[in-house]
Design a protein that fits this description.
By secondary structure, the chain is mostly helical. The chain contains 13 helices and seven strands. The strands form three sheets. It has a three-stranded antiparallel beta sheet, with helices on one face. Strands 1-2 form a two-stranded antiparallel ribbon. Bound molecules: glycine (GLY).
Length: 374
């Protein structure tokens, strides 16, 4: 498989390069009909494209990718300065993969400064009376004021990074406490998860679990589960708080045990499976990155290792062989059959730029030990 994985990386890099050339200065939005919508920096997903460029640069050493990624720094800085569409917690996704990545790869002090400003913006979403980072909307938002979502675990590394850079413990404390709250309320006893959870904004009391993109409130949305696997593993990497590692492993076991025969997740673990039920290849790509992190964090004698190793192998083989666009030279995306919001009828079966990013992250980590920018 090694040769095949190298070929998959080469193919992915070529597609990233083609997109850079074809859509100069633009950023991919949610896809429609196997085409990304190319636009401005005003959604939650633009960082993934920049992260792909950094991975391609680190893997190949080709200056082309580095220059392309660096050229977007002003754009990301400007977004912060003008506060464009930043009333959400996905500031971590956006800035870990753009400015933190640039700082990590090149040592750019300008990029470091932008990333620290982004961390401050994320910190401002901390709601001390509840003990959460508010996911969406303004503080007084009637529906979302007291709402946390499992996806936020991937926004926490920006805060942990800011703590390491500055020594300011507020970043660490907020990230740590949000992860604790997520563990308590988003993860269920059997290792499944809620997508979101509501709290009373006045009292901070826990109200109920719910979903946004899943099948129903009590179901397990597969991408949420994969955010949890990787997110808790990362929280453990930064804090060494052992229960985070245990939680990541429980979520991983649930994910693996509920996969279909071809090892790539449907969009929700509780949705009735019929002909044509959409997959979410992006959930499997994210989970693969989570498994790679878990394999690095667990000892050689850990009883879960054989399960995690075989699941990683099966998932990545299936993604490369059945879901990648290696057979379609003109494709804009790297992975077919991701789903964004099935019941909302938004890209229920299409490319997902984050699926592309995590697929590439997993491949370059397996082949070269290169990590992502979390
Ligand atoms: N973080 C939003 C999503 O996974 O769709």
């Amino acid at each position: 498989m090694k040769g095949r994985w190298d070929a998959a990386i080469e193919d992915a890099m070529l597609k990233v390069k083609n997109n850079i050339v074809k859509f100069p200065g633009k950023l991919p939005h949610i896809a429609d009909g196997q085409r990304y919508e190319w636009g401005d920096n005003d959604d939650w997903i633009e960082g993934f494209y920049i992260g792909l460029m950094w991975l391609a640069y680190e893997y190949s050493g080709e200056i082309f990718y580095k220059e392309a990624a660096q050229n977007y720094l002003t754009n990301f800085k400007d977004r912060l300065d003008r506060h464009v569409a930043l009333d959400h917690h996905d500031i971590g996704f956006l800035y870990s993969l753009s400015s933190v990545a640039q700082w990590q790869v090149t040592g750019s002090t300008e990029a470091r400064e932008v990333a620290l400003q982004a961390a401050d913006r994320l910190l401002a979403r901390w709601r001390p009376a509840i003990g959460i980072i508010q996911a969406w909307g303004k503080e007084d938002d009637a529906d979302n004021g007291g709402r946390m979502i499992i996806d936020c675990l991937l926004n926490l590394p920006l805060l942990f990074w800011a703590y390491e850079q500055t020594g300011d413990s507020r970043y660490y404390d907020v990230a740590f406490r949000h992860a604790l709250k997520s563990q308590k309320f988003l993860v269920r006893g059997d290792g499944s998860s809620y997508h979101t959870f509501y709290f009373d904004t006045a009292t901070g009391h826990a109200l109920r679990g719910g979903t946004h993109q899943g099948y129903e409130d009590g179901s397990t949305w597969t991408r949420g589960q994969s955010w949890g696997i990787y997110g808790f593993a990362l929280a453990y990497r930064y804090t060494k708080h052992a229960p985070f590692l245990d939680t990541s492993k429980r979520l991983a076991r649930y994910f693996i045990e509920h996969l279909p025969e071809d090892h790539v997740a449907y969009w929700d673990f509780d949705v009735p499976i019929e002909n044509g039920t959409p997959r979410d290849s992006s959930a499997s790509a994210i989970a693969s990155c989570g498994l790679l992190e878990l394999l690095e964090l667990t000892g050689a004698d850990d009883p879960d290792r054989p399960l995690f190793e075989s699941a990683l192998q099966n998932s990545m083989e299936s993604l490369v062989e059945r879901y990648s666009t290696m057979d379609a030279a003109e494709a804009e995306g790297l992975l077919k059959h991701g789903s964004y919001h099935v019941l909302g009828d938004r890209a229920p079966d299409d490319y997902m730029i984050w699926g592309d990013y995590y697929y590439m992250e997993a491949l370059v980590r397996m082949q070269r030990g290169l990590k992502g920018y979390w």
